[in-house]
Each structure stands twice: as structure tokens, then as C-alpha cells.
Write a structure and sequence with these properties.
It is built from 6 helices and no strands. By secondary structure, it is mostly helical. Helix 1 runs antiparallel to helix 2, helix 3 packs antiparallel against helix 4 and helix 4 crosses helix 5. The longest helix has 23 residues. The chain is globular. The chain starts with a helix and ends with a helix.
């Protein structure tokens, strides 16, 4: 259990550092710009990775026999694949469709195995959250997120 938590923490930390490197490469300007949210997310990923690593290192090892759980690692791997898919789909599909799809699939991945996914609720939550984020960026921060396939209706 301790080793698994350390590995997950290190993966989160490495992913955060990699995401920060990509966010730093974005063109920026003074104040809030297109790189602000990715940098904030990267700092949060790094912070969570550090917190998880410290917690895992301080955890007292318990010998409960040779048991290997791949569920947590599979969830992390699927999450990383979904993030890569979101990045790849952002330009051709646009933010609203790519983000809503990512959130919907991520909700399904994060549903505990003993519970049945609530697909209508997940779909409504994904669309509502994406709409809120898109409107906040467009009208609150005056930043245009890529509209993609919906550009004829949004622009």
C-alpha cells in the first residue's frame, strides 16, 4: 500500500512538472491570459503530488501479505490517456465538446467499482461545468477558448 501511494505520488509529481513545462511554453502577457489556468493547474498538480508523497513516506508500512492492486494504477493510467485525448481533441473539436467529453469520461473512470455510473447526471454535470468555464473565460476574462465545431453557433 505504501509503495503504491509513493508510486502514484511520484507519477502525479512528474505529470505536474511536465504539465508546468508545457504551460510555461504558452505565449503570455501581463495579467490573466491563456497560460494562467494551465499554470495554476500545474502548480496544484505539483502541490498534490508533494502532499501525497509526504503522506506516503510518513505512512507506517503494514505487512498484510503479498497483495498487488492494479485498480489505482489503472485509474491513473486511464486519466493520463484521457488528458492526452483532451489535448489532442481540443483544436479540432473545440473546448466545449472536448471538455464535456473529457469530464463525462473522467466521471465514469472515477466512479467506484461497486457503484453504477449515473450517466444522465454525469452528462448534465459535464455540459453544465463546461458551459460555466467557457462563459467565464469568454465574458469574465475576455479570453477566447477554441470553439471548434460549434464556432458557427458561438461566434
Amino acid at each position: 500500500m505504501r509503495t503504491k501511494r509513493i508510486v502514484v505520488a511520484l507519477l502525479m509529481l512528474v505529470a505536474g512538472i511536465g504539465y508546468m513545462a508545457m504551460a510555461m511554453a504558452l505565449p503570455g502577457r501581463e495579467g490573466v491570459d491563456a497560460a494562467t489556468v494551465p499554470k495554476a493547474l500545474a502548480w496544484m498538480m505539483i502541490g498534490l503530488g508533494v502532499l501525497e508523497l509526504v503522506g506516503a513516506v510518513r505512512l507506517v508500512p503494514v505487512d498484510d501479505g503479498p497483495r498487488v492492486s492494479v485498480g489505482g494504477m489503472a485509474t491513473v493510467l486511464v486519466t493520463l490517456i484521457l488528458i492526452a485525448g483532451f489535448i489532442a481533441a481540443l483544436r479540432p473539436l473545440g473546448f466545449p465538446i472536448a471538455a464535456a467529453s473529457f469530464l463525462f469520461l473522467q466521471f465514469i473512470v472515477l466512479t467506484p467499482g461497486d457503484r453504477r455510473p449515473n450517466y444522465p447526471f454525469y452528462a448534465a454535470l459535464a455540459v453544465g461545468t463546461t458551459t460555466l468555464i467557457f462563459v467565464t473565460f469568454r465574458y469574465g476574462f475576455d479570453l477566447l477558448l477554441p470553439a471548434g465545431l460549434l464556432s458557427a453557433w458561438i461566434n
